[in-house]
Amino acid sequence: MYCLQWLLPVLLIPRPANPALWFSHTVFMGFYLLSFFLERRPCTICAVVFLAALSLLCYSSWGNCFLDLLCCGDAAVLGTEQCPGDVAGTDSDLV
Fold it and tell me: What is the C-alpha separation between 37 and 43, in angstroms, rounded?
């Protein structure tokens, strides 16, 4: 379980509030996880525990999941697409 000390803080990194940064955040987190799994090669138990925690986190709050690639396009940045995590009445809805 030593390898989990490098994976669990990833779950605590918040998603940026600015929609323009969502795509870069998603790419950074994806590359970090990919490079971690390729370089450190965590044990099977650690990988399963982390992926289970990640899937539960994304399932419970899909709009705040950092793997949300559906709302990272230019349409979300311009405010023309409504993402599942968006709340009605925000500044992007008033424009």
Answer: 10
> What would the mean pLDDT of 7-23 be, rounded to a whole number?
83
- Domain residues for the domain of 42 are 21-78
In a domain, 33, yes or no: yes
Buried b (16+ CB within 10 A) or exposed e, 27-53: eeeeeebeebeeeeebeeebeebbeee
| Type of residue found at 65 | C
d(CA 79, CA 61): 21
Q: Which residue has the tokens 């000390």?
A: 5
In a domain, 3, yes or no: no
Question: Tens of pLDDT along 48-63?
Answer: 988 888 888 878 876 6
